[in-house]
Amino acid sequence: MRTVLITGASRGIGAQCARRFAEKEYRVVINYNSSEKQAADLADELKKAGSDVCTVKADVSSSEEVNRMFARINDDYGGADILVNNAGIAQTKLFTDLTDEDWDKMLSTNLSSAFYCCRAALPYMIRNHFGRIINISSMWGQVGGSCEVHYSAAKAGIIGLTKALAMEEGLSGITVNCIAPGVIKTDMLSSFTKEDLQALKDETPTGTLGTPDDIARAAVFLADDSSSFITGQVLGINGGFVV
Questions:
Q1: Cβ neighbours of residue 141 under 8 Å, at least 6 residues apart?
Q2: Whether the predicted pLDDT of 42 surpasses 80
Q3: Is the model's pLDDT at 54 over the cut of 80?
Q4: Is position 26 annotated as part of the catalytic site?
């Protein structure tokens, strides 16, 4: 049984990834930071369905906490075969209003976290000559978003990390790919008005918003053996918003 670690998996896209991987009989490690109850509830849900699942608390913006998390996974399961770097935050703010703290928090949570987790995961993957790293970016990392400069920069960094790491690890049997979601119906949209959401739908060629399951199904595909010749790619799942 292969083990998948999903960061930021207590809700939204991460939680749906956990459900989809569990359905495919992966052992699922649910990482969370502050959402302990949601993570525990999700783990209970999956266990009742017969899945092998556990939760692990770690702030993935901290290299020390990431290293402790992987030490536990290595002790319990040998290591993580699949890593889904999903943890992230969003913030809408004028560039001229951004503070050093805004910038540092965004980059550490959305970009440094992926670096720390990849670095910790790779020794096991290299020894096994197998691994799947799936990074969650954003369409704004591809084209840039007004009033989201720091978010766009971090997500663009995820794309660069993906492409470079894929080149480096290909001969080790490890693929590294990126999913760039469009507008997805998660609690990150909770501050948007009905008018804002309708405007986003109108801008999307499909006339709809995406769901966490749209992203989760793609992540499962990229983890599967059938995707072994796909690496260094950015899969845009955005309803045609960015082409």
A1: 152, 154, 155, 156, 157, 158, 159, 180
A2: yes
A3: yes
A4: no
User: How far is residue 30's CA from residue 53's CA, in Å, rounded to a whole number?
Assistant: 7
Domain boundaries, the chain: 3-237
Domain 3-237 has CATH 3.30.930.30: no
pLDDT at 189: 80
Termini Cα distance of the chain = 37
Please name which of 68, 40, 38, 66 lies closest in space to residue 53, comparing C-alpha atoms: 40
The pLDDT of residue 191 is 76
Catalytic residue among 26, 32, 124, 151: 151
**pLDDT value of residue 213:** 98
Specify the DSSP class assigned to residue 135.
Answer: E
- List all residues 6 or more positions away from 109 whose beta carbon is below 8 Å from its beta carbon: 60, 61, 87, 88, 89, 154
Q: Which residue has the tokens 């770690």?
A: 58
